[in-house]
């Protein structure tokens, strides 16, 4: 799941953990992240993204969710309308990347938002210098310092040339527990009142690569759900694990536990307004 480059032109690695990340139960304390709560969050993500299929799917266990995820990416009928976003990363500064990821998601047209949500906000991460690529490729959002650039969700053929050209963005070292830092989401709030939320990110046994995948899914879906908007302030807080925090969570990113493959773990969490 996703920082520096790998070997020669390898196929782009995508955020394929489709079935696992969703709104948490309202005001769920992090201290109460039981197996049942994590399972419900993961299942709710599937129901939110593909409501027309949810009643026909078995979402009753971690193993069942894994089978659902594999089915989404192995079924021709599902892949036919799947879209993916692409992010090219030249330099990684996590707080700036969080800010620009929110800006990218906010910039999407309604149709692109809907298609991306139905594809579980699938994203491919590539290593490259956006400044050197802008003459050849049309990006939909570019960080103000050229540290990263995004192509909007589209069928895979739309970005096939870019994905063949660049290597997968990889960083296998463990995410460092950085000091808390505030990030303001770009844009004018308009008639909406900006809010302040904490964004918790788990670090224990989590690589930088995987952290990017987890945080990207959470931020994108929080924007699509209206939990994050222009002018909002996010405080990034890095913790070994999300349990025992005492915070009230509005959304979770849940995936397979790195310590226990048959269980689930919360990798990122967005709190209610603080």
TrEMBL record:
It comes from the Bacteria. Residues 1-30 are annotated as: Disordered. Residues 1-22 have a biased composition (Low complexity). Pfam families: DUF6182. InterPro entries: DUF6182 (IPR045754). This is DUF6182 family protein. It comes from Streptomyces toxytricini (Actinomyces toxytricini).
């Amino acid at each position: 799941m996703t920082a520096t480059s790998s070997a020669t032109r390898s196929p782009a690695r995508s955020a394929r953990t489709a079935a696992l990340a969703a709104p948490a139960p309202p005001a769920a304390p992090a201290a109460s992240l039981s197996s049942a709560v994590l399972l419900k969050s993961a299942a709710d993500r599937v129901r939110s993204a593909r409501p027309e299929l949810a009643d026909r799917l078995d979402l009753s266990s971690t193993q069942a969710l894994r089978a659902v995820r594999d089915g989404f990416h192995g079924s021709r009928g599902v892949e036919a309308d799947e879209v993916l976003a692409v992010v090219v990363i030249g330099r990684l500064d996590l707080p700036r990347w969080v800010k620009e990821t929110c800006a990218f998601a906010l910039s999407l047209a309604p149709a692109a938002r809907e298609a991306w949500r139905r594809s579980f906000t699938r994203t491919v991460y590539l290593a490259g210098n956006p400044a050197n690529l802008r003459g050849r490729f049309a990006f939909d959002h570019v960080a103000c310092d050229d540290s990263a650039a995004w192509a909007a969700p589209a069928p895979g053929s739309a970005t096939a040339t870019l994905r063949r050209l660049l290597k997968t963005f990889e960083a296998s070292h463990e995410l460092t527990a950085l000091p808390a830092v505030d990030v303001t989401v770009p844009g004018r709030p308009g008639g909406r009142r900006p809010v302040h939320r904490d964004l918790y990110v788990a670090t224990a046994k989590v690589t930088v690569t995987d952290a990017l995948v987890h945080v990207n899914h959470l931020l994108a879906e929080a924007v699509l759900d209206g939990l994050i908007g222009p002018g909002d302030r996010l405080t990034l807080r890095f913790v070994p694990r999300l349990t025992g925090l005492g915070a009230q969570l509005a959304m979770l990113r849940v995936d397979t536990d790195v310590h226990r493959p048959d269980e689930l773990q919360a990798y990122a969490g967005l709190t209610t307004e603080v």
